[in-house]
Amino acid sequence: MGIWFDCCAKPLRMQADSGAAEKEEQALISTMKKAGVEEVITACANCFEQFSLFAAGKIRVRMIYD
């Protein structure tokens, strides 16, 4: 178990910079997979939404409130 403070890239998506967002998302997933992360538990609804989209099938995603 650990704490991760990287951004989910939603601000980039909201600015319509999908290329930069995809690059950030892929880098985040790659780093997490290398670290052995199997599940992400978010406290932020925006992060949950983003991770549910770009990490689907790669890393389990849950809300801390579940």
What can you tell me about this protein's structure?
48% of the residues lie in helices and 12% in strands. By secondary structure, the chain is α+β, with helices and mostly antiparallel strands. The mean pLDDT is 87.
Tags for this entry?
66 residues, single chain, alpha+beta, two-stranded parallel sheet, 48% helix, 2 strands
Architecture blueprint of SSEs:
Elements: H1 10-14, H2 18-34, E1 39-42, H3 45-54, E2 60-63
Parallel strand pairs: 1-2
Number of helices: 3
What are the low-pLDDT stretches, counting only 5+ consecutive residues below 50? none
The biggest sheet, with number of strands, parallel, antiparallel or mixed sense and barrel status, is: 2 strands, parallel
Estimate percent helicity.
40-55%
Q: Got a strand count?
A: 2
Averaged pLDDT: 87
| Proportion of beta-strand residues | 5-15%
How would you describe the shape? globular
Rg calc: 11 Å
Amino- and carboxy-terminal Cα gap: 17 Å
Order of helices and strands: HHEHE
Backbone structural class? alpha+beta
Spatial ordering of strands, largest sheet? 1-2
